[in-house]
Amino acid sequence: MAEVSLRGVRKSFGPVDVIKGIDLDVAHGEFCVFVGPSGCGKSTLLRLIAGLEDITEGTLDIGGANMTRVPPANRGIAMVFQSYALYPHMTVRDNISFGLRMVDTPKPVITARVAEAARLLQLETYLDRKPSQLSGGQRQRVAIGRAIVREPEVFLFDEPLSNLDAALRSQTRVELLNLHQTLGATMIYVTHDQVEAMTMADKIVVLQAGQIEQVGSPLELYERPRNLFVAGFIGSPRMNTIPGRIATVIDGAARLELPGGAITHVQLNGTRLAPGPVLLGVRPEHIMVDDPGTSGEGLAGTVTLAEHLGAETILHIEMAHGPVLVARADGRAPQRIGQPVTLTLDPRFCHLFDPAGPALMNAPG
Amino acid sequence: MSATVGRIAVAGPVPATWWRRHQMALAPAILLAPACLLFALFVIWPIADSLWVSLHDWDGIKPMRFVGFGNYTELFTDDVFYTSLVNNVLWLVAFMLAPVFGLALALLLNQTLFGMRLVKSLFFFPFVISQVVVGLVFGWFLNADFGLLNVLLGFIGLPPVDILGDERWATFGVMAAGLWPQTAYCMILYLTGLTAINPELVEAARLDGARGWRLLRHVILPQLRPATFIAIVVCVVGALRSFDLVSIMTKGGPYDSSSVLAFYMYQQTFASFRYGYGAAIATVLFLIMDVYIAFFLVSLLRRERR
Amino acid sequence: MHLTRTLAAAAVVSGLLAAPVAAGTIVFNTDTSDPQPKAAFEAVVKQFEAENPGVTVKMNVYDHESYKSSIRNWLTSAPPDVALWYSGARMRQFVTPGLLEDVSALFTPETRVQFSPKVLDTVTVDDKQFGVPYSYYQWGLFARTDLLQKAGVGDIKTWDDLLGACDKLRAAGIEPVDLGSKDLWPTAGWFDYIDLRLNGYEFHTQLTEGRVSWQDPKVRDVFAHWKQLLDHQCFIKNHTSLSWQESQSLLYQGKAGMMLIGNFITQGIPADAAANIGFMTFPTITAGLPQTEEAPIESINIPTGAKNKADAMKLLAFMMRADVQTTVNKTLRQLPANNQAQVSDDRYLKAGAAQLGTAVHLTQFLDRDTSEDLATIAMKGFQEFMVKPERLDAVLANIERARKRIYASN
Amino acid sequence: MFPTPLQKQSPGARGLYRGVVSISLLVWLLPLFAIALTSTRSLDDLSRGNYWGWPTDLRIAENYTAVFTSSPMGRYLLNSVVITLPAVAGTLAVSTMAGFALAQYRFRGNIALFATFIAGNFVPFQVLMIPVRNLFVHVIPLYDTVWALVLFHIAFQTGFCTLFMRNFIRELPDALVEAARIEGVGELRIFWHVVLPLVRPALAALAVLEFTFIWNDYFWALVLVQSDTARPVTAGLQALAGQWLASWQLMSAGALIAAAPSIVIFFAMQRHFIAGLTLGAVKE
After folding, report:
1. D-chain residue closest to C268, CA distance
2. Cβ of residue C384 closer than 8 Å to a chain B Cβ
3. Contact check, Cβ <8 Å, A63/B5
4. ipTM value of the model?
């Protein structure tokens, strides 16, 4: 079994703390994605697991064994680098077999493993080429092949798709997931792209400034973000946040004053909240856009931009007294730029946040 | 093909030997050892030893006699030392022309017509030649009796000049020889710099209406800053180290008027056998250079930190 | 330097242990890189080895100029068994710190008489001999007799004759005196001779030994005479940018009348010019002074640290012999130091032998008679004076400052 | 491109440009033409004062042969080769190892050590003259042998070459080394199998550059050797200058012979040479 667990892991470079205490368990066979903005420490965390950086404090266990001070080669891991790290002076075959050759693996074993990896990754016809003669996607597969032949218990991926174009990226995502199915190994995957995280992960770890903001399945994070950061990071277009005030709480529902004096009501579902400033969070698909006058309680605004994506239209609406909101409308939405509209927030899908960050209440829906 | 612990052992038969465990610390030490050893023995220690020798009176035979800063105080009263120091400053100033000439040449030659590659190489190759040969070539070119320069002066009706034999001109004659390869070097730096400028940047500037001198001044030159930096670095180093040409063309003469610190030091050491005094001159040269090394290091390390 | 010394000692010791020099081998350092000296000493070594079976001589041939500095290195670190060197002050500077071996034993009553006292003096310190002189040569004016005749110049016997010759040659469109001062030392020939002829041997010796001020009126007098030569436009114009070799071609091409130089110049005289180039002694200035001439003497020495002194002494004894000196000097085109050796049949050497035979005193030339340090400063001063005579005071002050520094520390 | 490419201009302008460049080149190389011309003259020409006219009869073969027969020029050239090749090889070896260590490992004093190499590279080497000479005379008995020069050149050039190699290796993706490390490849094997193949272009550039630097050295040849058995061609040429004073045709031929190897290397490996020289001239 190859579960990975980190306990109180810290990393500092000189006086700078980069990783500030991480506790995390990745189960055997899980596909775990570290996601976060650049500089959040996700790559460093991966390198700590790989053993490329020394852990300053805390412990790392892989497969139940303490690996905190074990050299990378002995941790039972393999890593695929963002740049693929292919040796330009070696053929594909030599690249894939390099590590095995350097630790004196018997020749027949090498041959068999390279053949198996090449078959799995459809690289058989390219084995004698140099990396410079391969396309981006092929190079990527070679890098994975090099990891596979080591037959590791844990695969580490450091933004492996960021050098591919959009079409290839979604295709490779699927291939990687298939590979995960086939190999059944634990995979830890670093990306800054929340779409990748959402589509691939069994478990997402959102990192920010060296700390874990939230851990959970993609839908958990999407629906129940623990704080403003996660709420804003997961989902595209991002969640709208509107500053407001809880004026009164009556019968488990809050009366919310929004900028410009608009009023809306939010069911608190048992959460006890006191009057005071809050941020109202609502995802674009939960804002209904109507012509003015259709609904009495709506917020008035003007369309400033309409992005027609075919299946849907992303409308940017400047509120009369407040921020620009983004709403996801039907692909054939009739609204045009400059047009005044009325917005209705679906009360079932409203989140409330403390202006300092933590979620006060996630949407019940 | 699911992974098992047992199979990993085959993939990575990496016994955790003593070497394995410590190689991250040992490898750099081993790799650095030869360089550090050689550098310490032939560069670092000699600098210290040279400073030590400079505090002594020593002719290489008799025991060294400690004289404190005696050699240095003597420098203050030594006319030849001053002449050499002033000449070094002149060299420094004159060598600042090399980047200017080099840039001019680079601008002239930065074309892609047929044959320009060869032309550029030909312009460059004075730099490839040994200074000994450059010295001989120029010494002869400037020869008072039959040098080509005087032949050419004769054509336009000017009297011959004895540049290397005249205290007023000797230094300039040697510096001219020094500028020849130095300009070539700067030229190649600028040519490379010009090639590396993003053409879109120049096009954009042209669209904004910048042309000729203004384009050069406001767009091209700032882009050439790295080249200028290196050009100045090598010119300063070249000017302070100047020895070969002086030694070959004038031997510091007439009567030390074209001497430079490096040459005067050599002469004091090996012609007058004043090791301590020679070392003191070397120290002064070293101190001048230190200011500059410090400047260079600071700017380089600052870049490193970024 | 302690580290160096300790390591040096260790290196020497290990060197001794590691490579014992085979008995019967002599290491012989020479500065005979030029063709004629090289041939001369190769012949010497061959003959010596033939006469002393079992002894082999290993020659290390150095270039003439760098020999002067490198001898300091190996004399103090890894001395050979035998080395060529100069006599006089240059030798004494190595005798004082005990780097050269006393070879007085070679100068038995029989051999001693073969060397004139003035020659023997130059290898003698405290009544002990530290080298064997084997060769020397004369200095004087090498002149184009044909040009002098054409310009109406008669014998140059006195100072005024010399000044007159300058005027006449100049009038005839000939550069009177050829000189190449880029190497500095040719100027010292002029200084030495004017001083010797004007102030005499005693004063000159006091000056070169650092016992007299360079601002002494007698020294100023030397420069006053020199100034007369400048005023009479005796010297060629571009002498500062010419080496002595470069300058000599003016003499051969008939563009210049005379040159004050050592006999070594005769090696380079082209056949067609030889007939017209004569030798004369430098003219008299002060009448009645004992005749003194410049005659640099070469000698052969044994370093104190030599490993095979027994065989080294044999080589010195061999070099001392009249017959050997005859052959060597024939190839060298110089004069044998042994007065029983034969001067080779060469008119310049015959003239030189005659000149030096009558001389009462011999000097070794400024850069061998005084410290190299002082000589270099002085010779640069001479060159500067010749170009800018008005700077004489500064030049002399500078030399005097150096003299005080150098001779105070000794 | 700046200045404006001439392809866009009239043929007349291009012709004018070619004229200007040709004349500049002629003036620029005039001293060299002069020396090349002289190396073909007969001695008669020179003694008759025909320094600059057309040679009355060409003596190319004679003069160039005479250089070798009348002087130890052949020996000097051989010495230069024997000094330069091991010195270049040694410098590259030592500095590649050091450059790799400084670029790839984090350890205390890394930057300080790096700065020391850079600073040492700029030291006016005359400062080292007396101690280094004493070292070779008294401690390491190699004075007046080619090995003194070889050793010293390796040591001194290590400063520059380490700076060069360190920066080059620094530019290589760290991942290449890390990937090998994860696969259990030993550090020294990483150096040999991964880094060395990757730095080949830098090695080529440095090799050419160092070849000319060391080949052209004059100062140390003067300080550390003195006999013909060890003297390289630069110092040899200067020594011959005394012997050949009147024989300008030999002097010129000798100078050209001495310069030839570095010129040949330059033209043969121009791309590498310029790449080495201009490293750092492009980006900041």
Report:
1. D246
2. yes
3. yes
4. 0.82
Residue A100 near chain B (CB below 8 Å): yes
A4-220: CATH topology is: Rossmann fold (3.40.50)
Q: What is the rounded distance in angstroms from the CA atom of residue B230 to the CA atom of residue D279?
A: 9
Structural domain including C159 reads 139-294+371-406
Q: Are C117 and C360 in contact (CB under 8 A)?
A: no
E strand or H helix at B203: helix B199-207
**Cβ neighbours of residue B217 under 8 Å, at least 6 residues apart?**
none
B72-305 CATH fold: MetI-like fold (1.10.3720)
* Residue C391 and residue C268 share a domain: yes
Angle, CA A195 vertex, CA A193 and CA A200 arms, to 5°: 105
Q: Which of C212, B147, B113, C38 is nearest to D31 (CA)?
A: B147
DSSP code of residue A338: T
Q: Do C72 and B273 touch (CB under 8 A)?
A: yes
**Of B1, B14, B20, Cβ closest to residue A183:** B1
Chains C/A: 3 or more C-beta pairs closer than 8 A?
no
| Nearest-Cα residue of chain D relative to residue C15 | D141
Which chain C residues have a beta carbon less than 8 Å from that of B49?
1, 4
Domain ranges of chain A: 4-220, 240-361
Domain boundaries along the sequence of chain D: 6-63, 67-280
Q: Report the 10 Å Cβ neighbour count for C248.
A: 24
Q: How distant is the Cα of D195 from the closest Cα of chain B, in angstroms?
A: 13
Which residues in chain C are contacts of D227 at CB distance < 8 A? 60-63
Domain A240-361 sits in CATH at 2.40.50.140
Span A87-95, average pLDDT: 92
Contact C94 B256 (CB under 8 A): no
**C383 within domain boundaries:** yes
Q: What is the pTM of this model?
A: 0.85
Where in chain B is CATH 1.10.3720.10?
72-305
Note whether C315 and C379 are same-domain residues: no
Q: pLDDT tens, A10-58?
A: 999 888 899 999 999 999 999 999 999 988 999 999 999 999 988 999 9
Task: Determine whether the interchain pair C63/D139 forms a contact, defined as Cβ–Cβ distance below 8 Å.
Answer: no
For residues B115-127, average pLDDT: 88
Question: Which residues in chain A touch residue B1, judged by CB atoms under 8 angstroms apart?
Answer: 116, 120, 148, 151, 182-183
Same domain, C156 and C177: yes
Measure CB to CB from residue D246 to each of C60, C74, C249 and give the nearest one. C249
Report if residue C212 sits inside a domain: yes
pLDDT tens track for B138-197? 988 888 877 888 888 888 888 888 888 899 999 999 999 999 999 999 999 999 889 888
Interval A196-208: pLDDT, tens:
999 999 999 999 9
User: What long-range pairs does C194-198 form, CB within 8 A, spacing at least 24?
Assistant: C194/C222, C194/C225, C194/C226, C194/C285, C195/C219, C195/C222, C196/C289, C196/C292, C196/C293, C196/C294, C196/C363, C197/C159, C197/C282, C197/C283, C197/C284, C197/C285, C197/C286, C197/C289, C198/C222, C198/C225, C198/C285, C198/C286
Closest Cα of chain B to D84: distance in Å? 14
Alpha carbon distances (Å) from C201 to C93, C192, C197, C290, C389: 21, 10, 8, 8, 25
Are C106 and C40 found together in one domain?
Answer: yes
One-letter amino acid of A149: V
Fold of D67-280: MetI-like fold (1.10.3720)
Assess contact for D128 and D122: CB atoms under 8 A.
no
* Residue B12 pLDDT level (bands cut at 50, 70, 90): very low
